[in-house]
Design goal:
This protein is of the alpha/beta class. Helices cover 24% and strands 40% of the residues. The protein has a 4-stranded mixed beta sheet. A 4-stranded mixed beta sheet has the order 3-4-6-5. 26% of the residues are buried.
């Protein structure tokens, strides 16, 4: 089934500011990438992806990238260019055979999105 967890954290490693941590194993990464590959590339678009009782809502459009994290729901608000950036970053993580992470700037309560694969968070 794969693992995808999303947490809003007040602090993460060297980041003193709030971050959103998306932690995945390889199978979870593949599931997320497959869903994003099926999404329309143009905005506005909305799609849902349910995994392990957590609903991911992808709202493509607007001009601000942000993640709104609730106990059973994550809303990914991404302008179309930032969706493309997210896909590229996830592709890069998938290309690595070792545990890896990447950072992406977002807006809102958290200013950094941390994408982590096989790092055990």
């Amino acid at each position: 089934m794969g693992k995808i967890s999303v947490q809003a954290l007040d602090q993460f490693k060297e980041h003193d500011d709030k971050v959103v941590l998306v932690s995945m194993d390889r199978e979870g990464l593949d599931l997320l990438r497959a869903h994003l590959a099926r999404m329309p590339q143009d905005s506005p678009a909305i799609s849902r992806f349910v995994h392990a009782e957590l609903t991911h809502v992808f709202a493509i459009g607007g001009d601000v990238a942000r993640l709104d994290v609730a106990p059973k729901r994550v809303t990914w608000r991404l302008p179309a260019p930032r969706l493309k950036e997210l896909k590229q970053r996830l592709h890069g993580l998938g290309a690595s055979e070792k545990p890896a992470h990447d950072f992406m700037e977002i807006s809102g309560d958290a200013e950094t999105l941390v994408l982590s694969v096989d790092e055990g968070y």
